[in-house]
Every structure is written in structure tokens, then in C-alpha cells.
Design brief:
Elements (H helix, E strand, L loop, with lengths): L8 E4 L15 E4 L20 H11 L21
Antiparallel strand pairs: 1-2
Amino acid sequence: MTALDNSIVFCSSEIEDGDAHRHTNMPVVVAGGGAGSIVTGTHRRYTGGPPVADLFIALAGGLGLPLSSFGDDGTGPLAGIRA
């Protein structure tokens, strides 16, 4: 196993549109395997605008930190992220 197999790396921007400061339709890359705790090798598009905070909840769960909420709008783990 490599260090990336045991890591979770999140890359994104803070906003989707600099003029409007929207937080929807943001490009996000999650790399690493999280020691087998997250699904790898996939491309996902989510409709309905789930908050990025739900992604953070799913990633925290993969690290052994069960969260039921995160920030102002995170309500549960984003589906399809955890193995």
C-alpha cells in the first residue's frame, strides 16, 4: 500500500462562480483510498445540489469520526462515498 492508499485528499475551490459567489456546481476532486474506507476510481455527478458539507461528513466517517452534521448545512453523509 502507498501513502495515497491510506490518505484522503480533498481539492476544490471555495465557490463555483466568482462573480455570484455561488456554492453550487463546484468542481471537487477526492483522491486517495482512505485505507479502504472510501470508494475509488469513480466519477460522480450529484443532482439536487447536496451541500459540500455532506461530503465532509462522509469523509470524516471514513476516517472513523462519525458526524451527524457539519457546518450550517451538512445533514448527513453524501451517498456513494464510503465503501
